[in-house]
Design goal:
single chain; alpha+beta; Nucleoside Triphosphate Pyrophosphohydrolase; five-stranded mixed β-sheet; 10 helices; 10 strands; globular; EC 5.3.3.2; magnesium
Length: 272
């Protein structure tokens, strides 16, 4: 009789522990369920979406990005692949990113053409550097956008061989945009809160061919000419660069010596 009573109590105790563990992980399960990649949809399975992708670019798709809400408050993390699947974007998944605009002493803007190996927007012309802070301590730091600036420092070196100091970057503002991949592939897209960083410095460029197909310095006239003929001549432009160029860029460009007047760290400008 005593053994039966002890077994009953032990069973109840184990059940209670299991319930407690279940509640502790409830939020994690909800997030995974909401943004999971379902095997019943073969067009977006893990194996298929990376099939044929350059090995180096595919490896980078495992990097952990910072998920945010529409007010840029961190809410979790997800792989670069998960963040850029259009299936998850259409459910509202949003991540943190940055765009660097680097000018030389002649006030020319450094553009890059993304490599044809890139998963999203291959072969597109865009601003100097565009990428994401990662879910690592020194790139999560919020104060003075230090985490984002460190990420920009890392990627400029990786993509263009450019060494920058943190003090070289000026954080102006943020934009929120969403775009499907071009040419549309039904798999990939972007949905980002994008930190705009501006710098002015003479640099030597050594481009990484896996990341960058070409680069050039342009003045305002040259850029306007490029943008005006892009559609008719089939020149590809990233959507975030076009949005920023149309709305903000030339105001900043005309005032590189007094950019502080454009600092707006409270607003997230909505393009979607």
């Amino acid at each position: 009789m005593m053994d039966t009573l002890l077994l009953t109590k032990l069973g109840k105790f184990i059940h209670t522990v299991q319930q407690t563990r279940s509640h502790c992980h409830q939020n994690q399960r909800i997030i995974r369920r909401l943004f999971s990649v379902h095997a019943s949809r073969p067009e977006v399975t893990i194996n298929d979406v990376l099939s044929g992708v350059d090995k180096t670019q595919a490896q980078q798709m495992h990097e952990e990005c910072i998920l945010v809400d529409i007010n840029d408050i961190p809410v979790g993390t997800a792989s670069k692949k998960t963040c850029h699947l259009i299936q998850n974007i259409n459910k509202g998944m949003l991540h943190r990113a940055f765009s660097v605009f680097l000018f030389n002493s002649k006030s020319e803007l450094l553009l890059q053409q993304r490599s044809d190996y890139k998963v999203t927007f291959p072969g597109h012309f865009t601003n100097t550097c565009c990428s994401h802070p990662l879910n690592i301590p020194n790139e999560r730091e919020e104060k003075d956008a230090l985490g984002v600036k460190r990420a920009a420092q890392r990627k400029l070196k990786h993509e263009l061989g450019i060494h920058m100091e943190i003090a070289d970057f000026q954080f102006l503002t943020r934009i929120h945009y969403k775009a499907e991949n071009i040419t549309a592939d039904l798999h990939w897209g972007e949905h980002e809160i994008d930190y705009v960083l501006v710098a002015q410095k003479d640099v030597t460029v050594t481009q990484n061919p896996n990341e960058v197909k070409s680069h050039r310095f342009v003045n305002q006239k040259s850029l306007k000419h490029l943008m005006s003929r892009a559609k008719s001549e089939g020149i590809l432009i990233t959507p975030w660069f076009r949005m920023i160029e149309e709305r903000f860029l030339f105001k900043w460009w005309d005032n590189l010596e007094k950019l502080e007047q454009f600092n707006d760290h409270k607003t997230v400008h909505r393009f979607c």
